[in-house]
Amino acid sequence: MKTICFYLPQYHPTEENNKWWGQGFTEWTNVTKATPRFRGHYQPQLPSELGFYDLRLEETRVAQAALAAEYGIGGFCYYHYWFSGKLMLERPLLEMLESGKPDFPFCLCWANEKWIRSWDNETQEVLLDQTYNDQEHLAHIQWLMPFFKDSRYIKVNGKPVLLVYRVDEIPNIVEKLNIWRKYAVNRGLPGLYLCVVNNYKNTLPPEKLIGYGFDAVVDFQPNARDFPSRKKTNFVKYILPRILNKAGEALRIKNFRKFSVTDEYSYGGIINKISQKEATGYRVFPTAFPSWDNSPRKKVNATVLQNEDAELFKKFLEISKKKVSLYPKQEQIVFINAWNEWAEGCHLEPDFKHGRKFLEVVNAVFTDK
Q1: Could you give the CA distance from residue 122 to residue 259 in angstroms, rounded to a whole number?
Q2: Under a CB-based contact definition with an 8 Å cutoff, are residues 24 and 356 in contact?
Q3: Residues 6+ apart with CB under 8 A from 286
Q4: Residue 121: is its pLDDT beyond 60?
Q5: What's the mean pLDDT in 7-17?
Q6: How confident is the model over 9-15, as a mean pLDDT?
Q7: What is the pLDDT of residue 233?
Q8: Which pLDDT belongs to residue 244?
């Protein structure tokens, strides 16, 4: 059985981020600005052992992999950003491929959402758009091939595992998957093991997604469709700020600054809902997460499923493990969101408050004794 952690590469400055968000912007910029929104709110969450690292450093990438391997994690799933041939945040990936370090299993998830200036919740300006055509898809698979042929790349029955984040936005998806598969076979691979990510933004049911020709569905969490009832909704925390924000917009008040809005849900409640999901006739890879809090990124409409109990996360992992235990061995895969989503309060990397507690329960659940 294999655990694969989603991995965010936005911990180094880029020309585009300097332009859009300010000189030197990285994910740490949002993390260090976070403040508590309510009593008992755990913010800011700050890294301890690995520090405020820069992913341009090979030493950092090697240290991350060594820590993950020590606690039984089977690989990283790197987010990969491709915009019709334009790459974003690609440097850690390319250097990892060229150097052969770290010697740690990995796969890729094509995060094919358009990039929108939405973190400040004031605008929906498109920064980088997505376009889709057959020529672009051929160029994309050509670019991916060196990764697929790397000995570290995670495969199922010899087929490289590739995730696609927003399938519902890709026109003529069946034809495009055929382009990819045909190219892979013509280059000596037995095929591709393609996974569709079922996330909260997806507008299509999983049955339809799998029908496009994917091999498996990744049940990405947290997903708003699985949220329990909001935690003790109170007027001041949730409703009044929304009323004032809408009034400010309607009245076009000059220099109006929106009030913070934070929706808090029960972490234990979402585990209970997910545990009740029935088995399907197709492969579904569950995604467990230790906690979730995107308030560092979002002033308005932040979502918090705060969890500081490693044993509760352990329960989530055990439920996920059971769901895949009857699959063929190579398809016994559990995803974890995430290795290092610090601005979403969702990380296994140690912080000052909890240290390695969440890593320890991963090791307890998935390492054969």
Answers
A1: 12
A2: no
A3: 219, 221, 274, 319, 320, 323, 324, 334, 335
A4: no
A5: 97
A6: 97
A7: 57
A8: 83
CA nearest to 76, candidates 163, 7, 165, 145: 7
Domains plus CATH for the chain? 2-228+265-366 (3.20.20.80), 230-262 (no CATH)
User: Are residues 64 and 106 in contact, defined by beta-carbon separation less than 8 angstroms?
Assistant: no
Question: How many C-beta atoms surround the C-beta of residue 347 within 10 A?
Answer: 24
Q: What's the CA gap between 89 and 56, in Å, rounded?
A: 10
Comparing CA positions, the residue from 305, 340, 310 lying closest to residue 42 is 305
CA dist 235 → 242, 248, 269 (Å): 10, 18, 22
Which helix (H) or strand (E) element contains residue 125?
strand 125-128
Q: Which of 1-10, 19-28, 108-117, 354-363 has the lowest mean pLDDT?
A: 108-117
Cα–Cα distance, 104 to 132 (Å, whole number): 32
DSSP for 176-206?
HHHHHHHHHHHTT-S--EEEEEE-TT--S-H
**pLDDT tier at 122, thresholds 50, 70, 90:** low
Q: Are 204 and 185 in contact (CB under 8 A)?
A: no
Q: Where are the beta strands (DSSP E) in 203-282?
A: 216-219, 262-264
Judge residue 31's burial from the number of C-beta atoms within 10 Å of its C-beta, 0-12 exposed, 13-18 middle, 19 or more buried. buried
Higher-pLDDT residue of 291 and 39 is 291
DSSP three-state, residue 115: strand
Q: What is the pLDDT of residue 246?
A: 81
Both tokens of 206, joined, read 């999983």
CA distance 320 to 233: 29
